[in-house]
Amino acid sequence: MTMLRRGLPWSVALGLTVVGTAAAAGYGPANSSGGGLIMGPASTLNRKAYQGYYDGHKDTYLNTDVSDKAEAAAMHVNYAPVLKTVPLAAAPEIYLVKGRAASGQLAVFGSEPGEASYSPIWKETILTWKAGATPVVITSDTQGDQLEKKGDLTERSTTIRLNCPIVKVGPHA
Fold first, then answer.
1. Beta partners for 128?
2. For residue 127, how many other CB atoms are within 10 A of its CB?
3. Using omega within 30 degrees of 0 as the cis cutoff, is the peptide bond preceding 87 cis?
4. What is the per-residue pLDDT across 47-82, written as a single tens digit (0 to 9) for each?
5. Is 98 left (phi over 0), alpha (psi -120 to 50) or beta?
6. From the CB of residue 66, how many other CB atoms can be counted at a distance below 10 Å?
7. Pairing of strands 65-66, 107-109
8. Which range is least confidently modeled, 10-19, 86-95, 118-127, 151-160?
């Protein structure tokens, strides 16, 4: 307490208290008490991030693994055959347009973090514009369903699963 009266700024004292309390509770990297989960020291790396649409806004996601060997090679991501064991019913859909597309088209997600149906493991669904249809930017799964019902778009389910965690939810993703 004497140190605080002599000029240690309150913000520094408060910061030291918060850091000390977090470490004591097992939330910091210096947790040796066995109180929390230890993942090791954090570091930063450069990795490609992508944007996709969900209900009209953009989310940022990573593409790390896929259950199909050829797709893994084409996407330059990890081939993860164990993803095939994830039940298709448990994975929300990620819609990918193949062939002709409107300028600015991105992947379209069927869910996002914060929703009960969110999972970073996605079931790949391919969308293809029919001949004679004019492609538009699809920004939601609902819009895709409407375009399919209208006869402009075909939807093809696959058994491919992608590990694409959404790391930032829009609107400024």
1. 154
2. 21
3. no
4. 899 999 999 999 999 999 999 999 999 999 999 999
5. beta
6. 25
7. unpaired
8. 10-19
Diameter of the chain by CA atoms?
80
Q: Are 79 and 25 in contact (CB under 8 A)?
A: no
Q: How far is Cα 41 from Cα 172, in angstroms, rounded to an integer?
A: 29
108 pLDDT higher than 90: yes
Which residues, in sequence order, are CB contacts of 126 under 8 Å at separation 6+? 95, 96, 97, 98, 155, 156, 158
Contact yes or no for 154/127 (Cβ under 8 A):
yes
- Dig out the tokens for 133 from the structure: 């249809």
Q: What 3-state class would DSSP assign to 127?
A: strand
How far apart, in Å, do the first and last CA atoms of the chain sit? Answer: 44
Q: Which residues pair with 157 in a beta bridge?
A: 125
Tokens for 20?
């000390």
Q: How far is CA 18 from CA 9, 11, 25, 35, 42, in A?
A: 14, 10, 10, 17, 19
CB 119 within 8 A of CB 111: yes
Residue type, 10: W
